[in-house]
Automatic annotation (TrEMBL):
The lineage of its organism: Bacteria, Pseudomonadati, Thermodesulfobacteriota, Desulfuromonadia, Geobacterales. This is Cytochrome C. It comes from Geomonas oryzisoli. Pfam families: Paired_CXXCH_1. It comes from the Bacteria. InterPro entries: Paired_CXXCH_1. Keywords: Signal.
Length: 452
């Protein structure tokens, strides 16, 4: 206790001397700028001699320095601050012990003895090339200069001085994706198995959504079969050519639907093929809503039952040949689309009892209508391809024949039926009790005048 009392005056004297020295350093005539920092370094406000050592009695010395730092580089800072730079990846200035390349040892107008408070671009671009960060689309933290939102400025266990695993780091902000992926039935393979940076540039890009490449080039980098088809096909689906590309129809991260579709297939297709947005194509929303009978694939919500959603060698992205004209006699390959599902034999056998119900006895009436080498009619002469208001996909208003609509006036019975279109006189047919067309023709023919 006595010893403490004896030393106390000495300690007080030294403390007063140090404070006086600091006050003298910060006087208006010398280092007044140090006192003006918004965030001053604590020693610079009263303990200058904790970092500086006087090496000459006179101060200031003309064209010389009478003080030097108590230690060199980071060794000086380590006297108060915990050692850094021990992790796997170390920022070069830290590795070189050059703390003052980023921090002002006396103070700063920003936190952590830095010049800026939030915008770190000026500091970071002092070493890093700014061009890569100034493209059309910029990541939010980059735009604000918040480099340390993602990067540790000193050291890290992760490549690029990241503050953690790439995906985990991204999902800390993009938590909507984190929740969505947990609940989704399907997650896109790159999202599930690769870092976000496999598709996105984390800083800036010339492409929307910070994509590393434009659509659809980015996607076909993996989906090479689709890319090959797009390059060789005669017709490409128009949405693939716009800026959003594949994202017009597919969810790029996760989805509840097969094929990573952004919703059910029919809804997505009709979303474009309707109203004014359908352009020169048929208004499918109106057509489907106004008809009670739907073609099988559409009834099952599968537009790709007939159309290729990416590219095709056939008109309207069809999966096979389908005649556009009213007259189209059957030949091999001419009806490739329809015969993907329907039995080819109904167009190749003149007589049958099994391949079609549209027959008179065993006379195949599909063959009669379609296989005629001069006047074979296409499917669209009697059937609609998407939706209809009559049985057997027949349109009550009839097929288009120039400005005229040819009504079929189809009536079905349990064993056959009848029709009376503009193509011919009314005819009936029966699978069990065949109608004799010859007798009907004779009965309808005008009576001959008796011979003299």
């Amino acid at each position: 206790m006595k010893r403490y009392l004896l030393l106390s005056p000495l300690l007080l004297a030294l403390s007063a001397l140090t404070a006086a020295a600091a006050d003298n350093c910060l006087s208006a005539g010398c280092h007044a700028k140090i006192a003006a920092f918004k965030h001053p370094h604590a020693p610079a406000q009263g303990d200058c001699l904790s970092c500086h050592v006087q090496k000459a009695k006179e101060h200031p010395l003309p064209k010389a320095k009478s003080f030097e730092t108590a230690a060199k580089g980071s060794a000086l800072c380590a006297g108060c601050h915990d050692r850094i730079g021990k992790k796997k990846v170390v920022h070069p200035p830290v590795k070189e012990g050059d703390c003052t390349s980023c921090h002002n040892p006396h103070g700063g107008n920003g936190r952590f003895l830095m010049e800026a408070d939030e915008d770190q671009k000026a500091l970071c671009f002092g070493c890093h090339d700014a061009a890569a960060f100034k493209k059309q689309y910029v990541h939010g933290p980059v735009a604000e200069g918040a480099c340390t939102a993602c990067h540790d400025p000193h050291d890290s266990g992760t490549k690029g001085l990241l503050k953690g695993d790439v995906k985990e780091l991204c999902l800390k902000c993009h938590d909507d994706f984190a929740k969505g992926m947990k609940q989704a039935a399907r997650v896109h393979a790159p999202v599930k198995n690769a870092p976000c940076t496999s598709c996105h540039d984390p800083h800036a890009s010339v492409n929307p959504a910070l994509l590393k490449d434009k659509m659809p080039d980015l996607c076909i980098g993996c989906h090479k079969d689709i890319g090959k088809k797009m390059k060789s096909a005669k017709v490409m689906h128009q949405p693939l050519a716009d800026a959003k590309g594949c994202g017009n129809c597919h969810s790029t991260h996760y989805s509840a639907a097969k094929g990573m579709m952004a919703g059910d297939q029919r809804t997505i297709c009709v979303g474009c093929h309707s109203g004014k947005s359908s352009g020169s194509l048929r208004d499918m929303a109106k057509e489907l809503a106004g008809n009670k009978v739907l073609h099988g694939p559409i009834k099952n919500g599968k537009c790709d039952g007939c159309h290729d959603p990416h590219a095709s060698d056939y008109r309207r992205l069809l999966l096979g040949n389908y005649p556009a004209s009213f007259y189209a006699p059957y030949r091999e390959g001419a009806y490739g689309l329809c015969l993907r599902c329907h039995d080819k034999n109904m167009l190749t056998f003149a007589q049958t009892t099994i391949y079609t119900k549209f027959r008179n006895g065993d006379q195949n009436l599909h063959f009669v209508h379609v296989a005629d080498r001069l006047k074979g009619r296409s499917c669209l002469a009697c059937h609609e391809s998407h939706a209809a208001d009559g049985t057997m996909m027949g349109n009550k208003e009839g097929a288009t024949f120039g400005p005229w609509r040819i009504k079929s006036r189809l009536k079905l019975t349990s064993t056959g039926g009848s029709c009376a279109p503009g193509c011919h006189w009314p005819y009936s047919y029966d699978r069990v009790k065949p109608v004799s067309y010859q007798k009907k023709a004779e009965a309808a023919a005008p009576a001959k005048a008796p011979s003299k």
